[in-house]
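queue> holo job accepted (pyridoxal-5'-phosphate)
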Amino acid sequence: MRPFAETARRHPDGIVDLSIGSPVDPTPDRVREALASATDAHSYPQTAGTPELRAVVSRWFDRRRGVPGLSDDEVLPTIGSKELVAWLPLMLGLGEGDVVVHPRAAYPTYAVGATIAGARAVASDDPADWPAETRLVWLNSPGNPDGAVLDVDGLARAVARARELGAVVASDECYAELGWDGQWRNEPVPSVLDPRVTAGDRTGLLAVYSLSKQSNLAGYRAAFVAGDSRLIDHLLTVRKHAGMMPPAPVQAAMIAALSDDDHVSAQKELYRARRAILRPALIDFGMRIDRSEAGLYLWGTKGVDAWQTIGELAELGILAGPGPFYGEHFPQHVRLSLTATDERIAAAAARLA
Ligand SMILES: Cc1ncc(COP(=O)(O)O)c(C=O)c1O
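queue> job finished
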């Protein structure tokens, strides 16, 4: 990407960097205050999370994700979600001969996690194609990079097939609050722990969530995993002994973030406005936007090699992410993130016009 970034930086009005999904808006005051007032942290933090944090996570699942009744032993905070994604296969004891399935257009860390464990990563969206050796299935809805959403039936099909294979399902749901088009305009994006998916049985199922995007907390490293109590207990044991303890001030900040829905709605409106400007500008520029019905990205193609589009955009001072960074199946796609200020998004739209 370096030569393209250099080209984009040479634009007289500066670069518009839409290549990574790093939040640009401020962390909410109430969250910063909660962190600041928890800085006397002389004792070790609880790997399991404080009882208050676990209760808040459980209430949040009920209120925002349609998942009632999660008990204390079904939730666990993590140090951001990337570490969990990267280490989960190893923490579950996977190794040589095992398969980790992930989406065809995928956040690269799913495959990294398989590699760390010595397992094999297989990119597949069709449960019928998942190999017999599959031990872990990553779902990602809404998806990064493509903004695809799995509805209740899609989730249930994935769960049924994984159970047939004896595989764990880990559903990475960090963009769930950002539904835009189609049915997701009015309806929440479902969780893998939704009772319509599980029929009350959470065995083998984990939902992974992060506060990085919804609360502009990427620098805090604040996330959690929930689901099957047996798996959570196992992860807790491993994480205790491996020192994977979310810092106490961050746990306090998470409580503040998860107890307030207003800042999440306000942030969503910022992204909605940016998307409403960027999407038509990309279409006018000759791009077809695929999927992208939810999430933080626009996934599009001009029907030519991704690197050609990356080059054209760089000449306009706009940096995008090339499809090949998300697997081998989308050589002509590029990903554009909505994480730029209103001013930079307006600049991008003007240049595309
Ligand atoms: C699909 C997906 N999962 C997980 C993460 C990691 O987020 P964090 O480590 O900030 O919680 C990201 C970050 O971009 C992501 O896109």
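queue> The chain has twelve helices and 13 strands.
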